[in-house]
Amino acid sequence: MKDDMNPQVEPTPSTQIDPPHPAEDVLDHVGYRLKRAHAALRSAMDQALREHGLTVPQYACLEVLAARPGLSNAELARATFVTRQSMNVVLRGLQDAGLLTRPATVESGRARPASLTDEGRDRLTAAQEAVYAIEARMIEAIPDERLTALLEDFDRLARALSD
Fold first, then answer.
1. Are 114 and 104 within 8 A, CB to CB?
2. Which is nearest to 44 in space by CA: 150, 159, 133?
3. pLDDT by residue (tens digit) across 8-45?
4. Distance in angstroms (rounded) separating the CA atoms of residues 139 and 55
5. Which residues neighbour 23 within 8 Å (Cβ) at sequence distance 6 or greater?
């Protein structure tokens, strides 16, 4: 007897799409491997920065501001790969912690340029030691003669996806 409430549907054969490069399974794809490396970096940074009372976005913000003081919220968001809304939260937290300053008002426009305080520079310097040690561990895994090519490849990947 056929049950009209639960009709049997014949499965349709799925179409297999060939990957863009030889891969045994999804774990061998370039995107997956890149994400795995990113996740390992993020985890190591989260752990190291926790000891300095910072998150990865906060650290990135301090790092960028040290190199380019006076950037606006939007410029910092672009430089640190977060949304403007997220950067607002990051900036507020860093300002509340005394690690950066922003003027309460500006003469023209809405951008309130941020600058590190002395305490912000000190915290960044301490955190940089931990973060740079992580980067050194990554670099040690790459033969010296391949590092420049790897960095160029990362740039090519980014350009290929942004074109």
1. no
2. 133
3. 656 566 677 777 777 777 787 889 999 999 999 999 99
4. 23
5. 29
Show Cβ contacts of residue 52 under 8 Å, excluding neighbours closer than 6 positions: 59, 123, 126, 127, 130
Spatial CA neighbour of 111 closest among 137, 78, 141: 78
Q: How much is the pTM?
A: 0.80
Residue 116 DSSP one-character state? E
With b for 16 or more beta-carbon neighbours within 10 A and e for fewer, the 45-83 pattern comes to beebbeebebbbbbbbbbbbbeeeeebbbebbbebbebe
- 118-140 vs 30-50: helix crossing angle, rounded to 10: 140
SS3 of 161, please? helix
What separation, in Å, do the N-terminal and C-terminal C-alpha atoms of the chain show?
58
